[in-house]
Design goal:
This protein is α+β, with helices and mostly antiparallel strands. The chain contains three helices and 15 strands.
Length: about 220
């Protein structure tokens, strides 16, 4: 009995150290939440859930010595033979945004938001980088900042485009639409006069959508 008690105590201590204080779901259980911030309104697995298998098509992402997997806006980290749903580390880069994302313009920057995570386009990497939430965006924009606006853009590859091709197409269509319309959503106010911002934003959205559809995407 003494040996059994000792083994049980050691097992409990080991499990506690592995969990690191995080309340994990039992393997096989699924707990989801709806992320309604910025009118995103999409459902994701809760962080802390443990799954037996990764979703089909999950991308492996290296960040320093760590390895993560990324699928549908959800991030995973290996924990033994299973996978733990986690928050992505700030600074990690992905080639393709989640299939559902919300564009959030705050100050002079255009952020891409999904599952409690903000991404910025990194032109040097030609990819999207996880960043800290911009200061003030969660509580509302401070008076000195431009107002934040959100709009949804759902882009689906129709022709099996690779992640690398999708990243290239998104960036090139953005640049083409900005050049054609004179409106750049990554700049404060789109870089146009306040009276022209609303119509020019619509022109940009139509040009960007037309470019993506011409390259074999469905845009909604």
């Amino acid at each position: 009995m003494r040996n059994f008690t000792a083994r049980f105590t050691m097992t409990a201590l080991l499990a506690t150290s592995l969990v690191g204080g995080l309340a994990l779901a039992e393997p096989g259980e699924r707990h989801e939440h709806v992320d309604a911030r910025h009118l995103h309104n999409h459902s994701y697995l809760d962080r802390g859930d443990v799954v037996a298998e990764l979703p089909r098509g999950a991308n492996r992402v290296r960040f320093g010595a760590a390895r993560y997997w990324y699928a549908g806006g959800v991030w995973y980290e290996a924990t033994g033979p299973r996978f733990l749903v986690v928050a992505p580390p700030v600074g990690v880069v992905v080639e393709v945004l989640p299939p559902y994302f919300t564009t959030v313009r705050f100050g002079a920057e255009q952020y891409y938001y999904a599952n409690d995570t903000y991404y910025l386009f990194n032109p040097r990497e030609r990819a999207f980088q996880v960043v800290e939430p911009p200061a003030g965006i969660e509580a509302g924009a401070p008076p000195a900042a431009a107002s934040a606006a959100a709009d949804n853009l759902f882009v689906y590859p129709r022709n099996g485009q690779s992640p690398e091709q999708q990243a290239t197409d998104r960036y090139e269509c953005h640049r083409w639409a900005a050049d054609q319309t004179g409106f750049d959503p990554t700049r404060a106010g789109g870089g146009v006069a306040p009276a022209a911002e609303a119509p020019k934003r619509g022109d940009y959205a139509r040009a960007n959508s037309a470019c993506l559809e011409g390259r074999g995407y469905t845009v909604r």
